[in-house]
Amino acid sequence: MKILAFAASLRKGSLNRKLIGVVTDILRELGGEVDLAEFHEFDMPLFDGDRQAAEGLPPGALALERRMRAAPAMVIATPEYNYSIAGPLKNAIDWVSRARPMPWRGRSIYLVSTSPGAIGGIRGLWQTRIPLEGCGALVFPDMFALPHGDRAFSDDGKLTDGAAADRLRQQVLGFYRLAEAVAPLCCGEARSDADQKKQQEIVRALEDESRIQPK
Ligand code: FNR
To answer: Which residue has the least CA distance to atom 13 on ligand 1?
Structure first.
């Protein structure tokens, strides 16, 4: 299964980029086809409804949308800013949410975070779930927040705390298995007519009947 992964930090020395490296190593061991992106590839202006009406989505948002559509699953390593979601990530979620069909819908997403602080960004992860779930993404129930990220990695990019490494591996395995199981129904290539019919029913429930995500 293809998985899009990126750290939502533009900083050269980003700790979250180190963490996404650890997660993608595990995913590859599990047989995942990882598309590891740099957040810079999705540079975009602040959301502006007038600009969207005049020009549509900016190139950075279109690039993110394109990479998302090719992968039924995503992993995002994100910093916590001021106890909440990181602004640049929220801006990207908002721009991409204006594309149709809704690119976030049905996509399996695993959220991880690290920070030099003692609780590793868990408050930001809870806030990050909200817009993603509002857009219909299937955010994995467990999230991984790595405390003291400034001293949690060895020189070769591994986690130095064995217990934390085991917990991460367990979560990534659960995420990968679940994402693989739901992808054919939720946003992957339908493997049969029955799967395709179910996908259409999901779209009808979210768009036509409930109007949660209007066309
Ligand atoms: C932070 N940082 C931070 N850390 C934290 O644990 N809780 C917080 O609420 C915040 N708030 C915050 C706000 C802003 C604007 C900045 C720039 C930073 C510190 C943050 O965790 C630290 O800079 C990380 O190293 C950022 O992640 P990357 O860039 O290393 O991936």
So the answer is: 81
